[in-house]
Amino acid sequence: MVYRSPILNVMTAAAHKAARGLVRDLGELEHLQVSKKGPADYVSKADRRAEAILRTELKKARPSYGLLMEESGVVEGSDISNRWVVDPLDGTTNFLHGIPHFAISIALERDGDPFAGVIYAPVHDEMYVAEKGAGAYLNGRRLRVSARKSVDEALFATGIPFCGLPDHDLFLRQLQGVMAVSAGVRRFGSAALDLAYVAAGRYDGYWENGLNPWDVAAGIVLVREAGGFVTDLAGGRRMLSGGGILAANSALHPQLQRLIGGSGESGKAEPEPA
Ligand code: IPD
Ligand code: CA
Ligand code: CA
C-alpha cells in the first residue's frame, strides 16, 4: 500500500523488507542462534538480521536522521530533530517459542516527541500506521479506540514481569485491582502490539511498568491518533524514560490509573487528544 505520506512509505517499506527474514527464521527456529542479554532476556540472529536491514533501509532513505535501535544502540545523525526509534522484533520470547504474535516497531521521533509510527505483525499481515495529525490506520482502515466507558465491560492488556525484572509485588497489586472489576486482562507478549490493539479498539486499555523507548514510541502515536490518551503510570509524560505506560480512551484512562494505584502526582497529564 502507498501512503500519502512519504515518511510512512519509507517506514512501511523497511518493515516489509525486514519481515521477510523474520518469517523465514520463524520456520527454522531449530537452527536459530540465540544469545542471552540478561535473565530471561534473549536476542536471536533473527533480531539482529532484522535490525541490520532496518538500519540500512532507514539510513538510505534519510541519511541525516539518527537512530536508537534496541540491539545496536544509538547512531548519531546530523539532523538533531529527527531520530528513528526501532525495535526490530518486539515479542522475541513469543518468536523463539514459535508463537506467531510479534511485530516490527519503527517510530520517527521529532524534537523528542513520537511523530510517526509503524507496527507490522508479519504473520497476520497487519500493518498499523500513524502520523501526527493524520490519523491511525490498520491496512488502510481508519482506527478509533474503543468507546466503552465502564470497567466492568472493559478488556485490558498488560505485561507480566518475569525473572530478572523488578516490581513483581507491585504488579500483583496492580493486577488485583484490575481483575476484580474488569471483564478480563490479557498478556500477549508484545508491548508494541498491545498499544496497536488499543488503537484498534481490541483492547479497551493497556498498562505496563518500565519498558524501553523502542517498545512504545510507535504505539504512542497510534493510540493518540486513534483518539486515545497515553501517559506514564503516574499520569505524566515519562513514557519514553522508564515511567511505564498507560493507554486507554479518555473515559477509561483515569479509571484504569486509579485501579493500578497510579498517583498522577508527577508531571501534568496530557491535554485531551486532538
Ligand atoms: C518485550 C515485549 C514484552 C514486554 C517486555 C519487552 P522484546 O520486548 O514487548 O511484551 O513485556 O518488557 O521487553 O524484548 O520482545 O523486544
Ligand atoms: Ca520490545
Ligand atoms: Ca526486541
Q: In terms of topology, how is this protein built?
A:
Blueprint: H1 6-26, E1 34-38, E2 41-44, H2 45-61, E3 65-69, E4 73-75, E5 79-90, H3 92-96, E6 103-110, E7 113-121, E8 126-131, E9 136-138, E10 141-142, E11 155-158, H4 168-179, E12 184-186, H5 191-199, E13 205-208, H6 213-225, E14 229-231, E15 245-248, H7 252-259
Parallel strand pairs: 3-5, 11-12, 11-13
Antiparallel strand pairs: 1-2, 3-4, 5-6, 6-7, 7-8, 8-9, 9-10, 13-15, 14-15
In short:
This protein is α+β, with helices and mostly antiparallel strands and about 270 residues long.
Features:
alpha+beta; Fructose-1,6-Bisphosphatase, Chain A, domain 1; D-Maltodextrin-Binding Protein, domain 2; eight-stranded mixed sheet; 27% strand; globular; binds D-MYO-inositol-1-phosphate; binds calcium ion
Structural account:
The protein folds into two domains: 6-142, Fructose-1,6-Bisphosphatase, Chain A, domain 1 (2-Layer Sandwich); 151-260, D-Maltodextrin-Binding Protein, domain 2 (3-Layer(aba) Sandwich). The chain contains seven helices and 15 strands. It has helices spanning 6-26, 45-61, 92-96, 168-179, 191-199, 213-225, 252-259, and strands spanning 34-38, 41-44, 65-69, 73-75, 79-90, 103-110, 113-121, 126-131, 136-138, 141-142, 155-158, 184-186, 205-208, 229-231, 245-248. Strands 4-3-5-6-7-8-9-10 form an eight-stranded mixed β-sheet, with helices on both faces. Helix 1 (6-26) packs antiparallel against helix 2 (45-61) and helix 5 (191-199) packs parallel to helix 6. The chain is globular, with a radius of gyration of 18 Å. Bound molecules: D-MYO-inositol-1-phosphate and calcium ion (2 copies). One calcium ion is lined by residues 87, 90, 191, 215.
